[in-house]
Amino acid sequence: MKKLLILGMVWPEPSSSAAGSRMLQLIDVFLDWGFEISFACAAQKTSHSEALERQKVKEVAIQINHKSFDEFLKAFEPTHVLFDRFIMEEQLGWRVHQICPHTITILDTEDLHFLRKARHEAVKQNINFKPNLLFTESAKREIASILRCDVSLMISEAEMHILQRHFDVKPSQLFYLPFLLSESKIPNSASFNSFSSRSHFVSIGNFLHAPNWDQVLFLKEQIWPLIKQELPEAELHIYGAYAKQKVKQLNNEKQGFLVKGRAKNALEVIQNAKVLLAPLRFGAGLKGKLLDALLTGTPSVTTSIGVEGMPGDLPWAGEIANTPKEIAKQAILLYTLEKRWNKAQRNAVEILKKRFSKDSFTNLFEGKLHQIESDLTKHRQQHFYGQILHQNQLQSTKYMSLWIEEKNKPH
Questions:
Q1: How sure is the predictor about 394, in pLDDT bands with cuts at 50, 70 and 90?
Q2: What domain of life does the UniProt record list for this protein's source (predicted)?
Q3: How far apart are CA 187 and CA 308, in angstroms?
Q4: Please, which pLDDT band fits residue 401 given cuts at 50, 70 and 90?
Q5: What angle do CA 76, 396, 85 make, to 5 degrees?
Q6: Rounded-to-integer distance, Cα 36 and Cα 59, Å
Q7: Neighbouring-strand partners of residue 106
Q8: Would you tell me how many other CB atoms lie within 10 Å of the CB of residue 310?
Q9: Which domains does the chain have, with CATH numbers?
């Protein structure tokens, strides 16, 4: 039997973030293929963590810099290991490579962290983003992890293009795997709430994620006052997990800027709103909030960064704008013009069917893994830089980890 070990950075919280939903989608794929799965994590669980054992996934609490993890690896003997973001590969990849040298290693990048950071830097400096901002220490670390793994899952075609164009990463080390929706999860337009049955604007996103916090400030300070001036009866409902005091203090009933905190059911909240606002000024990957908008037939106004990787060549299910004035203008038009709104809603179904249908990608993914499995030695020889990086990692990360392990022993 094939065995998958997932090394999670955190326990999945699908109600809190798109990353949590993405992980559950990957788990479903491997369960469909008949894998035995263990999910191992060193983080603390929360009340919002998914109960993975209900899906017949074994949950394992691990310690990062501790020999007990080596013993666990030897006992489980995984045929495949999936690293949840590059940080987990950095911390534990050398142990996997040393103890299970013939195990196929998969990196789920989630998004390119160094790309998000570079775009954030451009916003902080108030400059236009340029490719030279990509060449950072963060990029070195993340790309090193990509090269060390047998295959890296990419959620966005735009990010694959960046890796290939600017960093010469071979296409054979990358595999495009976006959000995955089973046929039963893709709605038809008849199931959507109508224009007349909806009211107000909504914005949603985990507040621990820097792009979402920036988005709320951008709305509060520069965009919402322009919308409110033209639509005095409208309200903007702000939802998101982990709303700290700095978020809650933005609440202002007089301005119709209402901070609601965590949504018990994100889809329910979004399907009752007339327009979703997602004016993201930086970020990477695909945006879960925009997928939820598509699933509920809720037209959205977002930026070129927000929409990146979502519709492909299809028309967007809403409007795309990048300046406060233009975002506000498009939001007002979408909110008030029913024909434009209905057209955006129809576009949502086409995007879901043609861009995120699970069946379109899982067979290709299974084929990619079979190809690697059939001759792992040849695959690794074709990507020899990865082996060089493994060797260097053994001389650095390994000995730092062993030093920490020794330091933590009782003396």
A1: low
A2: Bacteria
A3: 22
A4: low
A5: 55
A6: 12
A7: 82, 151
A8: 24
A9: 3-182+358-408 (3.40.50.2000), 187-355 (3.40.50.2000)
- Structure-token match 């699933």, residue found: 295
Q: Is 20 exposed, middle or buried (0-12, 13-18, 19+ CB in 10 A)?
A: buried
In whole angstroms, give the CA distance from residue 330 to residue 307.
Answer: 15
The predicted model gives 173-187 an average pLDDT of 95
pLDDT at 15: 82
Q: For residues 122 and 317, what is the distance between their CA atoms, to the nearest angstrom?
A: 28
φ/ψ of residue 338, rounded to 5: -65, -40
Strand partners of residue 61 = 41
pLDDT, tens digit (0-9, with 9 covering 90-100), for 68-113: 999 999 999 999 999 999 999 999 999 999 999 999 999 999 999 9
To the question of pTM greater than 0.90 for the whole model, the response is yes
For residues 177 and 365, is the Cβ–Cβ distance under 8 A?
A: yes
* pLDDT per residue as tens digits for the range 22-54: 999 999 999 999 999 999 999 999 988 999 998
Strand-by-strand arrangement of the 104-108 sheet? 58-61, 36-41, 3-8, 80-84, 104-108, 151-154, 174-176
Report d(CA 373, CA 48) in Å as an integer.
Answer: 36
